[in-house]
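ligand=zinc ion
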Amino acid sequence: MLALTVRPMEAGSAELRRVPEPDVADGAILCETVAVGIDGTDEEIADGSYGEAPAGREHLILGHESLGRVLEAPRGSGFATGDLVVGVVRRPDPVPCESCAAGEWDMCRNGLFTERGIKGRDGFVSERFRIEPEFGIRPDATLGALAVLTEPTSVVAKAWEHAELVAGRASWTPRRVLVTGAGPLGLLAALLGVRRGYEVHVLDVVEGGRKPVLATDLGATYHSRGLDHAGEGFDLIIECTGVGPLAFHAVRHLAANGVLCLTGISGAGRETSLAVDDLNRDLVLGNRAVVGSVNANRRHYEAAVRALAEADRGWLARMITRRVPLKGALDALDRHEDDVKTIVEVAT
Ligand code: BGC
Ligand code: ZN
């Protein structure tokens, strides 16, 4: 079958190649791939700065934001031919650590976890893939191909859950929230924030194009003139840019008891000077917290499924701004101006 592969840590190695059919070791459910979303992690892997091939192999099949349609599923697996399925990205480490043993592989303590399309396991940009029944998620059937947004939504569902858990350590109610970044993660974080009843503000650098429209159509307030113009005193901030200087500047925009949740993975290796004593004082005197959040476990995928099922279909459809066929999958790795989410469409 045809697949988009890379040789991890080798820039420019992405190519479309013929590969063997998916290995039964990947799971008892065989799917035809419907669509796969592309994100910054895929771009970094293609740039040669991230990723790991399966043990003993040179190539990795790229793509972790999956949507497939079941071709074959064993009886009793909970899935039947024709069902839509989204594959969970991470697999618990083999030890397993305390978190992985509890089904919280997103909180793995020893780093020995694997991730489909990222770390030690093939991903989904191929004609077919396999998945274990226990790592298959059933999206809302009426979403159709829009269910490809389930994985990125699961990542922000976790971020909200964790931000609220930290905020919930004392009896006060967060109301005003800021999402930094109006890329797919930021916009999906804003969708979930509005759904939770918050007053949502979204910050990005672009002044025009699709992002401000998508944010304001949710009922959020869009800001493009920098953090200092976006306001002070946010109760929760979900950071979705991965821009280190912005992430730490955001601490100064938290209200007392506020929580800043970092979800962006920065690749740039920037250094900057920080007023560390002021930062320390703000955190201590305001009971403020900064928390990192990565990946998602089943609970977060399920929260994502519920949120997407209730979301406006037209808005979700406008999030997908570029669709490329499998044969053109290499193009999906090049970012175009005003792209929000690019997907590789395999079978529709
Ligand atoms: C994926 C996560 C993954 C993370 C780090 C993100 O793009 O959505 O599932 O844990 O990259 O590899
Ligand atoms: Zn673990």
